[in-house]
Please model this.
Amino acid sequence: MAKKCSMPLLLVSIFIHSLLVKGQSPLPPALYVFGDSLSDSGNNNFLQTEAKVNYTPYGIDFPSGATGRFTNGKTIVDFLAESLGLPFVPAYLSLSSTQKNNITTGVNYASGAAGILPETGTAMGMILSLDKQIDYFKDTIAKYLPRIYTTPVERSKYLSKSIFFISIGSNDYINNYLKPENYGSSKGYTPQQFANLLRDRLENHLKKLYYLGARKFVVFNIGRLGCIPAIVSAAKPKPNTPCDEKVNSLVVLYNAKFPNMIRKLERSLSGSTFVRGDTYNMAKNSYEAGILTEQTSCCEVNGLGHCRQDSTPCKNRKEMIFWDAYHPTEMVNHAVAYDCFNGSFLCTPMNIHQLARKPYASKMCLPLAK
Model:
């Protein structure tokens, strides 16, 4: 009989003592989101892809039910938006032209199964790669924002005060490097070469966002992929430890030089501020101490690792780490968002609350792509 997943002590303390600020005036004017299924708020609903979860029991704890979010309730982005005094950030593909012409509080371009590399996730069907997500953001600032912020100075000020959230890279391993039957990356690159490739590509994408007007960045590394249920169950031979450390070792190669890449960008991009999110070490002490002794999904999963449609999930969702075979529960998302907004452990060298309050460089010329 499987052991019940216990909540890591760090997450318990954050969850119990947290109280997200509601009803406040927005700290930044907008939150723009780029990433994968950890952040997707419904973009994949509009794509021909297997990476789609617009059905129950997904959203069982979300106010409006199943929306395409890959969890039982709110995502990290949802909690951050609430803390910043902003509404939930709508999926770009869900917006009509009229809505795009009028929205000023941010847009979510994230897409389940997407990665840093354009080919990542495509074996599952259509996805919005990071390249495509940035292309849609270009459309936003070229076609829609000028209707609201009519001068370049107004648009620059608005964008420089907005927060840009980027969390991506997991699928470049899960739905690329670790799937040699569908992709050739593991044959063409050594683990170190692949890690370097991902960082270099991400660095270029972040530069693109900067030259489009972004100044305040929140960028996450990659979490412990070797500890998610789908990876552990697929490992051959089955690991003696709670996690597949061979997979974690791949992620370490990417994360090792991630801080230096972020610092390099901040030094070279005048007026930029980067907050670095660390989801890898969030769970380190819990896993190594054996607090989480078994990777268990809250719902019954299908062959894709998603919850079976209309299945009945576990009742103790607030005690579970994993919702399905890949994604965390709302409770974990809440804990991460709370610490990144208020604390000093997961997000450095400042938290998101401090980032939002940091003055923008009003006298600096802010380039905007045409």
